[in-house]
Design goal:
alpha+beta; 7 helices; 374 residues; 22% helix; Immunoglobulin-like; 9-stranded antiparallel β-sheet; 9 strands
C-alpha cells in the first residue's frame, strides 16, 4: 500500500505549482474561475496534438506523418508560445527517435503508400535514416579503397605493406634500426636473475627511484582518506515501477465544490509492474489519472474519461476507458486507471473526457504522453 500511496501522491511538481497559479484564495469563491491562456503556455500544443493522436490511432499507417506534420507546424509558427513550441519539439523527437526509422516501415503489408512515402522512395532515404555503416551518399562513411598488395608480394602468405607505402614511415622499427644493446623479447643474459628475485639480505637501490628530498616530502604528506561510495537516496526503491509522466497536466474549470479549478496529473506505467493493481503485464501499459484536490470518485462515472493510443513501432492502436480503482485513493483524490494491451514499442497517447467526483461532474482538457514499453 505504501507504493500505491507513493504513486498517487508523487505527482508532477509542475501540477502543484500550476495549481497555485491558477487557483487563488480570492478567486476560489467564484462560481467558475476563468482560465488564463497566458498561464498555460503548453496548452495550445496539447489541444492541437490530442486530436491528431486520435486521428493517428484511426489510421496508424500514417501516424508518424500526421504527428510530425502537426508538431512541425506548431514549432515553426512564430506565434506559438514557447511552452507549446517546446512540447511540439518533444513530440517530434519522440516520433523520430522512438519509432521506426522509415515512414514506410509503419505501413501494413499490401497497403499502398501515400504520396509523401512514394516521393521519399523516389529520392532515396533521408539523411541519417539508414544505419551509419551503410555506404551511400550522405548515409555513412565512404567505403575504404580496395587493398592492393605490393609488387612481388603473395597475398595471404606473408606480411607486406600496401603498394605506395614507404617502410620508413610504417609503424614500428625495422630490424636493421634496432639499437646494438637491444635484446630479443623474452631473453635474459646468462648472469641475470629471474624476475622479482633478489639475493638474500639484499635491498633494491632506492636512490634511483625516489630522491631523499622526495622521500621526506612523501613521509610528511598527510594521508588522504578514501571517500566512501555514495549511498542511494533514502526514498529510492529498486522495485519502483517504470512510471512515465505525461507531457502536460490536464485542467478542469470549476471542478471543485466551491467552483475552484482542478489540476490533474496523468502518468503511464510500462509492464510488467505491480502497480496500479492488478499491475500491467508484459506488453501492457497502465494509465493513471489523478484529479488533485478532489474528493473520492463517484461509484458511477456518468461520462467516460478515455485514453486513445497508437504504437508507432508496430502500427497497433486502440482506445480504453479509465475507471475508479478501489486499490488507489478510495477516499480521494479521484483517481481513474486503465490497463491496455498496447504491445511493446513507442506509444503516443492522449487522455480526454470527463470525471465524476462525489461533488461535481468535471470536464478535463486533453493531455498527451509518450511511453516506451519494453
Amino acid at each position: 500500500m505504501l507504493q500505491i500511496a507513493k504513486l498517487a501522491t508523487g505527482l508532477t511538481a509542475a501540477a502543484f505549482a500550476m495549481t497555485a497559479v491558477v487557483v487563488s484564495p480570492a478567486a476560489a469563491a467564484d462560481p467558475t474561475i476563468p482560465l488564463d491562456p497566458g498561464q498555460l503556455p503548453g496548452m495550445e500544443a496539447v489541444q492541437n496534438l490530442s486530436p491528431v493522436i486520435q486521428q493517428a490511432a484511426a489510421v496508424p499507417s500514417s501516424a508518424q506523418q500526421l504527428l510530425l506534420a502537426a508538431a512541425s507546424q506548431l514549432a515553426g509558427n512564430a506565434a506559438t508560445p514557447a511552452g507549446s513550441a517546446a512540447l511540439a519539439d518533444a513530440v517530434t523527437r519522440f516520433v523520430q527517435d522512438g519509432g521506426p526509422a522509415g515512414l514506410a516501415s509503419a505501413l501494413p503489408s499490401g497497403t499502398v503508400p501515400s504520396a509523401a512515402v512514394n516521393q521519399q522512395a523516389a529520392i532515396g532515404p533521408a539523411h541519417g535514416t539508414t544505419p551509419l555503416m551503410t555506404p551511400g551518399p550522405g548515409n555513412g562513411p565512404i567505403p575504404l579503397e580496395q587493398h592492393v598488395p605490393a609488387a612481388g608480394a603473395i597475398p595471404g602468405t606473408e606480411a607486406h605493406l600496401p603498394a605506395g607505402i614507404d617502410p620508413a614511415h610504417a609503424a614500428g622499427p625495422v630490424a636493421a634500426a634496432l639499437p646494438a644493446n637491444t635484446l630479443p623479447a623474452n631473453t635474459l643474459p646468462a648472469n641475470t636473475l629471474p624476475a622479482n628475485t633478489l639475493p638474500a639480505n639484499t635491498l633494491p637501490e632506492v636512490s634511483r627511484m625516489v630522491s631523499p628530498a622526495a622521500a621526506v616530502a612523501l613521509a610528511a604528506a598527510p594521508v588522504q582518506p578514501i571517500a566512501p561510495a555514495p549511498l542511494a537516496a533514502p526514498s529510492f526503491d529498486p522495485n519502483s515501477p517504470p512510471t512515465q509522466d505525461f507531457m502536460y497536466p490536464s485542467i478542469s474549470a470549476g471542478c471543485l465544490k466551491d467552483g475552484g479549478n482542478v489540476i490533474a496529473a496523468a502518468l503511464s506505467v510500462a509492464g510488467p509492474a505491480k502497480i496500479p493493481t492488478p499491475g500491467p503485464g508484459p506488453g501492457q501499459t497502465a494509465y493513471v489519472f489523478t484529479a488533485v484536490g478532489t474528493p473520492a470518485p463517484a461509484a458511477e462515472q456518468k461520462l467516460p474519461l478515455n485514453v486513445t493510443w497508437v504504437n508507432l513501432t508496430t502500427g497497433r492502436s486502440g482506445s480504453a476507458t479509465l475507471k475508479p480503482n478501489p486499490g488507489i485513493n478510495p477516499d480521494g483524490p479521484t483517481t481513474l486507471t486503465a490497463i491496455v494491451d498496447t504491445g511493446s514499442g513507442s506509444i503516443m497517447s492522449t487522455i480526454f473526457g470527463q470525471v465524476t467526483t462525489l461533488d461535481k461532474q468535471c470536464t478535463f482538457m486533453p493531455t498527451i504522453g509518450s511511453t516506451v514499453v519494453p
